[in-house]
Amino acid sequence: MAKLYFRYGAMNSGKSTALLQAAYNYEERGQQVLLAKPGVDAKGDRDIVSRLGVTRPVHFLIGEDADVLELFFAERRALVEATGSPVACLLIDEAQFLTPWQVNDLLRIAVVQDVPVLAYGIRTDFRTEAFPGSARLLEVAHSLEELKTICRCGRKALFNARRIGDQYVFDGQQVAIDTLNDVGYESLCAACYLAESGGVLDGEAVTVSAPLGPDVDFS
Amino acid sequence: MAKLYFRYGAMNSGKSTALLQAAYNYEERGQQVLLAKPGVDAKGDRDIVSRLGVTRPVHFLIGEDADVLELFFAERRALVEATGSPVACLLIDEAQFLTPWQVNDLLRIAVVQDVPVLAYGIRTDFRTEAFPGSARLLEVAHSLEELKTICRCGRKALFNARRIGDQYVFDGQQVAIDTLNDVGYESLCAACYLAESGGVLDGEAVTVSAPLGPDVDFS
Amino acid sequence: MAKLYFRYGAMNSGKSTALLQAAYNYEERGQQVLLAKPGVDAKGDRDIVSRLGVTRPVHFLIGEDADVLELFFAERRALVEATGSPVACLLIDEAQFLTPWQVNDLLRIAVVQDVPVLAYGIRTDFRTEAFPGSARLLEVAHSLEELKTICRCGRKALFNARRIGDQYVFDGQQVAIDTLNDVGYESLCAACYLAESGGVLDGEAVTVSAPLGPDVDFS
Amino acid sequence: MAKLYFRYGAMNSGKSTALLQAAYNYEERGQQVLLAKPGVDAKGDRDIVSRLGVTRPVHFLIGEDADVLELFFAERRALVEATGSPVACLLIDEAQFLTPWQVNDLLRIAVVQDVPVLAYGIRTDFRTEAFPGSARLLEVAHSLEELKTICRCGRKALFNARRIGDQYVFDGQQVAIDTLNDVGYESLCAACYLAESGGVLDGEAVTVSAPLGPDVDFS
């Protein structure tokens, strides 16, 4: 029985490179793969774009209301007819933007269709809340595998802070594409994130109001 | 800087045993640990109970509205005064029952207080949805580590199916303690779960209505 | 196809507890397991002894020259005849003391007999060299999974230092059972180990003889 | 304290791509890295070559008798002088070809110099024996992380079989570069490897000579 893998990481951890390498590994052995990503992801249209310089189009986009099972069956049929060989793997980029029920279909593809599904995506947004697709993948994936990158301080990055111009912001819409409106993102470890947010996580401030003595300092 | 670990698993994967072993390892080296669990967990009152036969009381219960930082500071102070040595680790059993803001405090304890936090808990409920504490731990823990157990078919168990008497049920309240009302749970792999639920995941049925031909069969 | 797992850790990381928990999980589901350990392991005769207080005899000991495949077939036949149900898993304690060709048979049992093999053992000896069984398991196991414990300094322990009386020693025979001759072991992180050994690893001292300036200090 | 990571995988699992992505991630944040590889690796001279099409020269080669600590100090000094910023990471490609004492120095660089070392390499040779560098990395690395690729059968590849022309061979020298003499390699899972080798592992045949009945079949 095949499995659903969620390979998650902070922004700029090399998720698209890892996806393209996995696709390459399959195809080098003569095995077909299907590549897809959510339609809402605006970067590079139909392309999966690696910061290392490798680019490749997906087989299909997944619209917000799309039925992933139906899409998968149609695309698989087309690829099998074109190549004469079966589909060995389904690879999804930017999986954080899927809906929960689309992720349910990824699990069904793995378990019932016996096709491994590798879903790559960001774990949490700039407020440290999971995206809808990530939240569901964290619940149901057979295997949770982290792709790591580093914070400015050298530790492993955990969160994705948002900046508008030079200013970190901790309120706003979940999705604000980084090429627009002077919005930027920075992958930070938890310590650097809490230092910038003044201890706020997910809109919630530190709740201890009593004097705490020397053993706590959130400044 | 210390880390927050989420060691998750299906029911009966040995989470309490692993927690008690970790506590033992610290104490054997002369290092103090604090043990806690949510107050809502009815099993065994203040005890952490391992199915292997080992039992041990927690230092404190975490009520539904409790401020975890405040509790931690008070309990740490008491333990340091009683033993004369610092607290090397905070261990939480049944962490799935914490609230999201209580999990935020676990992250702050690790990152700002520099005390490692090991949180053990179940990933998802009988409908495959994360518990509130698990959902937040899956978002913010530095490290997600799976404790494994097996399905009746020999595969790794992923989900926790609920039975009332002999009947699997897929609707109802999230928490229904297993010693009451003839409710039982069974850890199942995704294939066995989908077989019992007729393809339903999280209350959502399979959405493909067109005839699919030989390549799909959810029966 | 089943897999061979090597669950390794420093001394006192809870390997026997984890093994006994895994056995319990199988048997609770009505699935039979076989337990074994090398005959050279003197502790507790035929027992697997957990520091948490749980103890249980193995089904068979593996002598130094024993053929593991032959033993496995005979013991499996006996257990199947006694219980009427198949063997779902083979669990090995103290696997570091197996010979490399005995580990080869563990791989064959997993791959050809389709029975999962969980081998628990120490990674390296007091000089930081792998034991014969560990060296082979590190080469061929499908999955390498670390069981963690802590150093006296709070970091993860990596190595097992040997003491005779109060003195750390870095030369001697690979196996010196800890209950005899005033020999003791302490799990240490790499920094604490190098501090005690004066930079020596595996009998080899630091090789840089030129003056190095402020950026190196092995004292 | 920094750590030594061993990221191992079968041939063609994307190790060089992963290394180049890690280097890119550091440099994108304005952090310097040092790249190195053993001198014995003939492919691409001083280049790290990714099958995805990305190529980049190393800062230094490590000769068979080279003192890695000395090389590291000299190269670090040069890079710091050239760039004015410290070295945040040392990345090693083809680490399987290092000597054990060179790996010891990698551990010292991580632990004593506090510079993370990411070593990428193949776990085992065509006979399923570890290379000298891999054997030592499997003993002393803080973290063992697998990079996966697939077998022709769709399972995870574990071993690297050698072919001369169309013929699988299981005897010969450990290193035979694949562009020469019609030598080729194929990453195989354990089942496919054992099928090709007739059950032989590491030069050792199956030792069970008694008639085994239906439950064993190595053909």
Automatic annotation (TrEMBL), chains A, B, C, D:
Catalytic activity: thymidine + ATP = dTMP + ADP + H(+)
One Gene Ontology cellular component: cytosol
Its EC number(s): 2.7.1.21
Residues the record lists as binding substrate: 185
Keyword entries, A-Z: ATP-binding, DNA synthesis, Kinase, Nucleotide-binding, Transferase
Active site: 94 (proton acceptor)
One GO MF term: thymidine kinase activity
Domain of life: Bacteria
A GO biological-process term: DNA biosynthetic process
Family, similarity comment: Belongs to the thymidine kinase family.
Name of this chain's protein: Thymidine kinase
Organism: Amnibacterium kyonggiense
